[in-house]
Known about the structure:
By secondary structure, the protein is an alpha+beta fold. It has a single domain (2-50, 60-257), classed as Roll (Thiol Ester Dehydrase, Chain A), CATH 3.10.129.10. The chain has helices spanning 2-22, 43-46, 71-83, 108-111, 171-190, 253-257, and strands spanning 85-87, 93-95, 98-101, 139-146, 151-158, 193-202, 211-222, 225-234, 240-250. The strands form 2 sheets. A 7-stranded antiparallel β-sheet has the order 3-4-5-7-8-9-6.
Amino acid sequence: MLRRAVSAFCYAAARAIPALRQRNIALPQLPFLRASLIPGLNSDYQSVTLSWPFSSFRPRDYSLPNPSWSPQMLRLYNYYNNLCEQDGEGGKKEIGPWIRLPSYNRTVKYATGGQCLSKVLQAKARLFTRNIEEEGAAFEYAMFLNTEEKAAVCVFQAGPLLEGPVGNLHGGAIATIIDTVTGALSIYLGGLVVTANLNVNYRSPIPLGSVVLVHAALEKMEDRKIYISCQVTSSDGSKLHTEATALFVKVNVGHLFER
Ligand SMILES: CCCCC/C=C\C/C=C\C/C=C\C/C=C\CCCC(=O)SCCNC(=O)CCNC(=O)[C@H](O)C(C)(C)COP(=O)(O)OP(=O)(O)OC[C@H]1O[C@@H](n2cnc3c(N)ncnc32)[C@H](O)[C@@H]1OP(=O)(O)O
């Protein structure tokens, strides 16, 4: 019964988001809808906080600068963040093609008041890339979407807990950030999706502590399928570290709750 209610809520939310986005209506900060999957969020929307019956607590946005960020990370973040705010007529801020995606460590917890609803919605579950609280230790990243070009850029600083080969980033961590960026772009383009295929070619090692750029772009959409290409490069773009292709398949909310 409870599971059905949650599913119904998710379904209604999934239907409502595109309508709100089309009308440029600020999304209420419903915690369940607050993850990076919220299409159309930009820095203006983030400043809107409406209280939510379960909790008025505002969770940490992990994609904002913190003291662990290197000057290079900060410079790249500022570069893309500035693209998100365009000056319009009379100095008014306009919504441009670039959107910064906020990023939280949990989607479900805040919508349920932190209650463990079932085996499906586990209270201790955390988003994989955001489950280490120590700043700079693991995945430090911020994602930006270009809604016109149907592309995404992620500024990624790889922390010391992500070691694979000595001094370098673990291949699984690289695949994870690729899945995250291509996934976020697909969610923006297609709503609820899951990764069906991820094909990764590792071309050159990524040193721990370095800052790299993850570029993702839509290749094509066919029915329920969204094909994305991705490259991880050095921060100046001169070195290719990784290339990938990803296939995402649109699913309905019920698919996530099938057991
Ligand atoms: C508003 C409410 C939202 C609620 C959201 C909730 C949570 C989101 C939370 C946070 C988001 C935050 C960040 C997001 C960041 C990253 C995203 C990460 C995403 C993942 O990390 S997700 C986990 C790993 N992922 C899986 O756990 C998937 C397991 N899997 C399946 O769930 C099924 O396998 C499925 C659904 C893929 C297909 O199953 P299905 O029965 O629905 O459909 P079917 O099999 O018919 O495939 C349909 C068409 O796709 C083709 N196709 C399918 N698979 C293919 C393959 N591998 N290669 C080539 N083509 C393939 C077929 O050939 C057919 O093509 P055609 O139509 O042309 O015949």
